[in-house]
Amino acid sequence: MSRHEALNPDDHRDLRIQERRDAALGDARMVCIVVPAEFRALQAEYPILFRLNETRDRFSALAMFGFENGENLYLADGRWDARYRPLAIDIQPFLIGGRPDEDGPKQIHVDVDSPRIATGDEGVRVFDKHGRPTPYLERVIEQIGELDHGFRESGDFFAALQRHELLEPFTLEVTLEDRSDNRLVGYHIIDEARLNSLSGTALAELQAAGHLEPIYMAMASLSQFSALIARRNRRAARG
């Protein structure tokens, strides 16, 4: 359950946030939505897949953390075991007020029912005693701005992928060392053969729009599946 409030120093002067990473704090998730502007950083840590929202006929991009619902193989001893965390994860429990595709200034909201809301003297302050944003909140505000900008830019990226038919269905079947079978279905990846068959004009169009780099980053990210499988095997071996 979530309960969102517009963040302000009058109502949230004493608000503190738990920064550690733990399943109990909302980090037990298999996937996280990401934006193309993050792909360069993401591809070095996570597989990036695409999923179609059937009701809106639009694609979104996801960073993969595990093979089943609620599994995050990057959680370890109260920390996130990767050099980069997706923006949508890092800004929690804050979010952008309003629709991501709306223009104009956005208001920051906070989920006051989030398990990240600290009690007592735990956690990091959001506002100082004078009601001014702390360095922590300033960082979050910057990240929210990056994420908002990334969402607004992503529509053109996904439209280009669909226009050039660059997404193909993807299924992954993995048998782990504990003999358990894992199957990922319902996702898409970049169709490399289709990309290689595009005309020079089409490639130039993608390059001019800034779409080629995230396309190649998404393709490169699939090599991270082997590391993700290794994480799962290590966790299973520890029991």
Automatic annotation (TrEMBL):
InterPro entries, sorted: SapC (IPR010836)
Pfam families, A to Z: SapC
Species of provenance: Sphingomonas yabuuchiae
Protein name: SapC family protein
Top-level division of the source organism's lineage: Bacteria
